């Protein structure tokens, strides 16, 4: 579990993401599709788009915003996030058929993109965000199994 202090470090770094949620969300999805091509096949809306079409797609940007906004909601709960994660786990496992490993992939990509975009995202900020995403993924996994 994470301490109050660790969650506050996460939220301080995340405030930079909240200042451009669509831009960062878009960058995360584009990087995910480039680095882990298999994840693209999960998206009926995106799987037939070329790399150039993905880059300019307003739908990718809109979905990036949805993903970032959900993470913002989850992180602000500082671990008391079961009510947010349960529907997310159900849709991603049953409806979208997403392997849980994909959440580990997007977690790595989120930290990478943040490190590129945020000037003062130091080692402690990175460690705290990494840990928060691990808690998020682990807790989604609990609902995947039930
Ligand atoms: Fe996702 C839809 C949040 C990771 C694949 N995703 C949604 C919705 C979110 C959401 C809110 C809309 C409501 C719903 O269906 O439920 N996704 C997140 C968050 C994360 C996330 C937060 C992690 C940071 N999602 C993933 C991946 C997975 C995936 C692990 C593939 C690669 S990254 N998500 C989907 C798909 C949809 C979706 C296929 C449906 C998109 C659509 O057609 O509208």
Per DSSP E runs of 2 or more residues, the count of β-strands stands at: 0
What bound compounds does this protein have?
Answer: sulfur substituted protoporphyrin IX
> Between the first and last Cα atoms, what is the distance in angstroms?
21 Å
Q: Give the biggest sheet.
A: none
Enumerate the spans where pLDDT stays under 50 for 5 or more consecutive residues. none
- Share of residues in helices: over 70%
Order of helices and strands: HHHHHHH
Q: What fraction of residues sit in β-strands?
A: under 5%
Brief synopsis:
By secondary structure, the chain is mainly α. It contains seven helices and no strands.
Description:
This protein has 146 residues and is mostly helical. The chain contains 7 helices and no strands. The chain is globular and about 45 Å long. The mean pLDDT is 97. Sulfur substituted protoporphyrin IX (CLN) binds next to helix 4, helix 5 and helix 6. Residues 32, 39, 42-45, 66-67, 70-71, 88, 91-92, 96, 98, 102-103, 106 line the site of sulfur substituted protoporphyrin IX.
Task: Give the secondary structure arrangement, pairings included.
Layout: H1 4-18, H2 21-35, H3 51-56, H4 58-76, H5 82-95, H6 101-117, H7 123-145
The structure holds sulfur substituted protoporphyrin IX.
Sulfur substituted protoporphyrin IX binds at residues 32, 39, 42-45, 66-67, 70-71, 88, 91-92, 96, 98, 102-103, 106.
């Amino acid at each position: 579990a994470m301490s109050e202090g660790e969650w506050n470090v996460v939220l301080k770094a995340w405030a930079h993401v909240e200042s451009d949620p669509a831009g960062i969300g878009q960058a995360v999805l584009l990087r995910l599709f480039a680095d882990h091509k298999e994840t693209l096949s999960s998206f009926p809306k995106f799987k037939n788009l070329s790399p150039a079409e993905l880059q300019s797609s307003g739908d990718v940007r809109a979905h990036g915003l949805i993903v970032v906004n959900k993470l913002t909601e989850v992180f602000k709960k500082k671990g008391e996030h079961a009510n947010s994660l349960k529907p997310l786990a159900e849709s991603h496992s049953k409806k979208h058929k997403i392997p849980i490993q994909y959440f580990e992939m997007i977690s790595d990509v989120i930290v990478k993109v943040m490190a590129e975009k945020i000037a003062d995202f130091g080692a402690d900020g990175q460690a705290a965000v990494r840990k928060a995403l691990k808690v998020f993924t682990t807790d989604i996994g609990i609902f995947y199994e039930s």
